[in-house]
Amino acid sequence: MVTVENKRIRLQDVAKEAKVSVATASMALSDCPDISEGTKQRIRNMSKKLGYQRPADKQLLRQHNEQKPKILRFGFMSVGTRLNDEILTDLLHELTMEAVSIGLRIEVSATDNISNHDALVKQTLAFGHELDGLILTGRVDDNLLSGIEMYHIPCIVVGNVLRTGNKFLQLGQILAADEIGMGRFAADSLIADGHKRIGFVAEILFPGLYIDNWLSGYLLAHNSTCITVDPKLVQIAGKAFVGGKPAAEAFVAMGGHAPTAYIIPDIRTASTFISTLTAHKINTDKNVVIISGTSSLAMKYHLENYPQITMDQKVMAVQVIERLFCIIKKPPLSPTRLLLPFTVRNFSEPCNIEAHSAPQ
């Protein structure tokens, strides 16, 4: 018997094992009518057993592989935020659904260790170097993007880039909701209702990221109407996962100088904030509180009836994948920042969103 492992199988090997001539073996594999069906089948079986491929078969296989479309692999990596964070769940779900619909593969990773920059870059490169494209979100900064660009990995940032020190250099390709516009729209709406002391509540602020941009919009709305913001109205806890209770207690202590309305860009923070004020018998009716987050989070925390300003995660997912395809096809010559319009829910008056869009 011919040893398959150590020898390239030839037609002569098939003929020898089937105990026929090379010509008979060739005619049988070509389905020649001069060869009996029994002999053809015996030779085909032996050919299959030995792993023999005719030159024509090899050529067809090669053509098939060349014509078979390549399945692109995109990576989704969360920097400084765990994947089980509720805020990421909806976006990751929509990205996965969009990928499945177009035959794309999404691989997922995360790191909550951002203190060691070299280790962070190394981990990100290890994840992304064999992928066709990389989607980053979370606490992404210019230093990380610089490391990725050195290795020419097509990459897009969902959200904004963390501002470090006094650097305002923008690297990479950014796709984000118009967070400044969201904050300004919220404050403008409450100011239009007659409120002049509007509280702004958040857990933690990172320069250039979500809460910071909402706060910028909040301040812009006040500046445009010549209202001076009392610094005590802006309550940033400085710690993650403490909720809105510290801010609520601070406002309670202000007595007659407390806010008459509130902007809370995170639904989880809003939930504990509202429950704390309610316990103190302070009005937290839906006409004085504006929140932000996904519909699923609002329902989970029973805040679905409150006015919400949010980003459609399905729209974001579609735009992220389309943009990354464009980057792969034709790498941009310079950094870009594309802001997507936001959506509003449960506002009593018609909303002119475009009028509040921040400059790009």
In short:
With 360 residues, this protein is of the alpha/beta class. Among the domains are: 11-67, 434 Repressor (Amino-terminal Domain) (Orthogonal Bundle), CATH 1.10.260; 179-310, Rossmann fold (3-Layer(aba) Sandwich). It has 13 helices and twelve strands.
Instruction: Give the terminus-to-terminus CA distance.
Output: 73 Å
**Portion in strands:** 15-25%
Number of helices: 13
Tell me about the biggest sheet? 6 strands, parallel
Q: How many beta-strand runs?
A: 12
CATH topology of one domain: Rossmann fold
Whole-number average pLDDT?
A: 85
Q: Helix proportion of residues, in percent?
A: 40-55%
> What is the structural class?
alpha/beta
Overall 3D geometry? elongated
Give the SSE order as H and E letters.
Answer: HHHHEHEHEHEEHEHEHEHEHEHEE
- The CATH class designation of one domain is Alpha Beta
Strands of the largest sheet, in order across it? 2-1-3-4-5-11
How big is the Rg? 31 Å
Describe the structure.
There is one protein chain. The protein has 13 helices and twelve strands. With 360 residues, the protein is an alpha/beta fold. A six-stranded parallel sheet has the order 2-1-3-4-5-11, sandwiched between helices. A four-stranded parallel sheet has the order 7-6-8-9, sandwiched between helices. Strand 1, helix 5 and strand 2 form a beta-alpha-beta unit. 37% of the residues are buried. Mean pLDDT is 85; it is low at 1-6 and 350-360.
Topology:
Layout: H1 11-18, H2 22-29, H3 37-50, H4 55-67, E1 73-79, H5 86-101, E2 105-111, H6 117-128, E3 133-138, H7 142-150, E4 155-158, E5 173-177, H8 179-192, E6 198-202, H9 210-224, E7 234-236, H10 245-253, E8 261-264, H11 267-279, E9 289-291, H12 295-300, E10 308-310, H13 313-329, E11 336-340, E12 343-345
Helix pairs in contact: 1-2, 1-3, 2-3, 5-13, 6-7, 8-9, 10-11
